[in-house]
User: Fold these one by one.
Assistant:
Number 1:
Amino acid sequence: MSRSSAGIRGVVAVFFATLFVANPAAFAQEKKRRIGPPPKVYTQMPVICAKCHKPDGRGGPAYGGFAADLRATLLNKEGLIIVIAEGIRQRGMPEFKSILSKREIEGIATYLVEKVQGVYYDDQGNRITAEESARLDPRKNDAPAKKN
């Protein structure tokens, strides 16, 4: 082996050693950690919850009684987590802690706060205010809802 090739190899070795010491993460094969709710929260859970609470969260007559209107709930994320996990048996809300993980329950609560709470739509799918929704809802009015 010649002195020049040995010198080049030495320089290359020092370069990579310096790079590794300066930035060991560049060589580490870390498993990427998923952040946020599990993907099924946004695909499967709204369908399961919609069996009672309806696709838009409006609630109404359901299997166990009268499902709450999730659009108008005053519960914050922590309150929703408790209700989803523990249920409210006397009101027909089952507990889900026995079939869902803590992460899934937290994901559902996040979904409700970010995508359902305070969001109202008319029959054509247009976003409307809570007041407009109340005027259109025959359950909250003696008069039938206006059709445009």
Number 2:
Amino acid sequence: MDILTILSVVVVGLLAGEEVAVRWAVHPALVALDDATQLRARQALIRTLRVLVPVIYFAGLAATIADLVVGGPDGLRLAAVVALVVWAGATFGGTVIINSAVIAWDPDAPPANWRGLVVRWARIDVVRSSAAVVALVLVAVAAVL
């Protein structure tokens, strides 16, 4: 196993871990909070994760593409790249747009449709977290075959 393969597994693993934690631990905890506290927490998370997550994503994508190119044609690594592109589509075409709105809200006076947007975000996030986990499984299996 070479360094690119290890890097791909580790970084895509970080992305998948972050996505699973946000989707299945952080999000359910947020919805249990009162409205203003929930929105303040969401805004704080957005401020942090909008920097951290793209760094992890692009590093994972670059490592996986590099591993694919250096290692030659491989259906598993290619499928992992596709899963990462699906993640990016759901992220930049969905959750980023909603997050950009959320960050500007007044937590004490959110828009009337804010709960609907949170539900929409959660649905899109299922796609994101699933795509990240699929990418991890694919790069991990490719690494051991």
Number 3:
Amino acid sequence: MKRLSVLTFFLVALLGVPALAAALEVAEGVITTQISDHNPADSVESYSATVGRLYCFTRLTGAETDTKVTHVWYRGDAEMARVDLAVRSNNWRTWSSKALLPEWTGAWRVDVLDADGNLLRSIPFTLN
């Protein structure tokens, strides 16, 4: 009887522990001048200020249900754009874009946030 009680205790304890969820991760994150066939055409950390438009490409893994990420574009510490993007599988590619004016030179970054606003990755680049 004691053995059955101990076994029951461990079974209840084991079933009561939530399964560890896979964490949403940025498997790939780049700034690119073009998206071609759902992939970045290039990956450079410094661009001419006359480029006109850049894309932030992210490949996300670990989503167990539909969720979202947010790309937040910063010039220095000033937020320039915020784009919510759906994530609909455990290996999902998505991107946002930003039109850039030639006078917006300097240090930039795109912060990739999960649905709760947690920072997943920061992707820096420079406009020359």
